[in-house]
Amino acid sequence: MRLLHTSDWHLGRSFHRVNMLSAQAGFLDHLVEVVRAERVDAVLVAGDVYDRAVPPLAAVELFDDALHRLADLGVPTVMISGNHDSARRLGVGSGLMSGAGVHLRTAPAACADPVALPDADGEVLVYGLPYLEPALVREEFGVERADHAAVLGAAMDRVRADLARRPAGSRSVVLAHAFVTGGAPSDSERDITAGGVQAVPAAVFDGVDYAALGHLHGCQTIGERVRYSGSPLAYSFSEAAHRKSMWLVDLGPGGSLTAERTDCPVPRRLARLRGTLEELLADPALAASEDAWVEATLTDPFRPEEPMARLSKRFPHLLVLAFEPAGADAEPDAGYARRLRDRTDQQIAEDFVAHVRGSAANPAEQAILRDAFTAVRVTAAAGEDR
Q1: At what angle do helices 148-164 and 134-141 cross, to 10 degrees?
Q2: Which range in 3-7, 301-305, 346-350 is most confidently predicted, on average pLDDT?
Q3: Where is the Calcineurin-like phosphoesterase domain (predicted)?
């Protein structure tokens, strides 16, 4: 059986100030074409279909269109909710949609209820484990510790118990949305530490033929049978070196497995540039980045005049501009709270000016800051008195 493993579509998300809906639509066109051209038997979507719990209408329309096209091809889709999705909203109509081959797994209690996909070698049992927020599902799984390893381990115990009741030789696949030990994160994943210790060991998936993971945005192999597909599009500059792809997984008789990557379309390349303003403007080696989405870090000792406007003339798709003056004093090991201890709002603001520009605020600027803080305090006090 040939499976296409993808995840983390984040429909509705933008890239800094760039609307990504057209790029997301392009990816979904590509996905449908891969399913057709590669004779895919089932599509696995391992969570974070949307970027937020209440997605914009245009994102919902993209999702709806993709599901209709996959259903028209007669290719079943198994999909779980991720930590960005609203499980209840995504799962609306799941009972009806299953008749069309779209299997939404968003309820933790149903994690051991597989989708049975038949082929010439027998059934492949696909279990969907939606994102499990420990504090919310602790009672459901009867675990003492409200952490990710405990609840995901309990869910997998249910999967293995169900497998034990199945005919010998049944092949099994699990979809899960989690941070597995050994995975490399990027800047665009939402932190899930609020639910306790976030990482879970790869061994939690022992006993199944393939674990199709979502959450981390870089495509990566944790083990031969435990893989992340990564997001199909880059959502942060930390993903500049990523090769965006999906996994084509062939699951043969007896659980034999081969996997290969199929690349996703790249709407625009990412470039991370660093140097003084004049270096970035003059360096001929940067010509290849002129059509890229650019993150530029300036190392000038003092902030140049109109750096965004000047850089944008050469790099029209400049999205992020940062300043790290060469030779500036820093305390990289000092905790943020410790560095701010006993400092007034005025002093913190003046420190910020010095950090960004490379020189201290002058007396006139200090007066402006002082007046601004006074105005804020007066306004706040007036609001409390109403």
Answers
A1: 40
A2: 3-7
A3: 1-218
CB atoms within 10 A of CB 131: 26
Residue 202 contacts residue 182 (beta carbons within 8 Å): yes
pLDDT at position 194: 43
* Under 8 Å between Cβ of 326 and 336: no
CA distance 323 to 298: 5
- Residue 22: CATH number of its domain: 3.60.21.10
Sign of CA dihedral 311, 316, 322, 326: negative
Q: Which DSSP symbol is given to 50? A: B
Work out the mean pLDDT of the chain and round it to a whole number: 90
How many separate domains does the chain show?
3
Same domain, residue pair 209 and 286: no
Domain ends where: 286, 312, 328? 328
180 & 321 share domain? no
Cα(45)–Cα(376) distance, integer angstroms: 48
Q: Mean of the pLDDT values across residues 85-89?
A: 94
Co-location of 215 and 231 in the same domain:
yes
CA separation for the pair 92, 86 (Å, rounded)? 10
Q: What pTM does this model have?
A: 0.82
* Span 260-280, average pLDDT: 97
* pLDDT classification of 339: cutoffs 50, 70, 90: low
Identify whether residues 61 and 162 lie together within a single domain.
yes
Give the model confidence (pLDDT) of 117-159 as tens digits.
999 899 999 999 999 999 899 999 999 888 999 999 999 999 9
What distance in Å separates the CA atoms of residue 159 and residue 111, rounded to the nearest whole number? 7
pLDDT above 80: residue 333: no
The H or E element spanning position 4 is strand 2-6
Range of the domain at 228: 2-263
- State the DSSP string of 201-251: -GGGGTTSSEEEEES-SS-EEEETTEEE---SS--SGGGTT---EEEEEEE
255 φψ region: left (φ > 0), alpha (ψ -120 to 50), beta (else): left
Mean pLDDT of 240-249: 97
97, 182: one domain:
yes
Domain boundary among 301, 328, 355: 328
Task: Point out which residues pair with 171 in neighbouring strands.
Answer: 124
Q: Which span out of 96-100, 196-200, 268-272 was modeled with the highest average pLDDT?
A: 268-272
